Amino acid sequence: MGVNFRTGNPIWVYYTDVDTGINLRVPTLLKGMAGEQYVVHQLDIPRYKFFKATGPLTGTFDDRQKTVHLYYRKQTWHKIKDVNLYLQTMAPTTLFDQVDGMPVESPMPAGLFLRAFQLIETTNHVLWYQINADRWVKEGDHLRVLAHDPYADEPSPVRANLESDFTYLKLNHLPATVDFVPNGKVAVYDQAYGTEIGQVADGQKLILTGKIMDDNGVVWYEAVDHGYINGSYLKLEED
């Protein structure tokens, strides 16, 4: 009786930017006979560092379908955070094509409102805001981070309109931690969408006594001895 030689299922290997989803190398197709061993190697990709892998990096070819993803991150990117922030240009502001990239177009004039959906802190502790798919602005005195949507109607005072404009939930001294960027600070207010009265540092421990949600789903928390802080900057310690 002859030996039954057969090929195993091929394995696709992808080398991907974890933050953008862009393939950094042409995907590789590994082929082999059933039972033959395979090994997926990390590649050295200029200006990138290896981040993580999903899928089996070693094993044997068989009848199962396998895919391996090796994810990389730009070397200068230290911390990435999805945000929903509004910025105001206080002076002419340069647009860049990427973090630490090249200036593009003419500087934006003062007085414009921008919406940022991603915040990057680089390894040299500089903050960058992504305002479009390939447009970034760099932190500085020319930018001001706003507490609310400048295009929305001016909100009413919280305590006078809780029933009509906000949903208020009393909390039993819930512990939380400020979750921003290392060495960064977040503003606190006398009320939701109110006047800034101070700042709290990244990693600072807070005790929460109230939670407010407006009609747009924006969440604010009331912190003991501090005031109100936007919920996107807090990590709750409920466990």
From TrEMBL:
InterPro entries: MucBP_dom
Highest taxon of the lineage: Bacteria
Positions of the MucBP domain: 10-73
Keywords: Repeat
Descriptive protein name: MucBP domain-containing protein
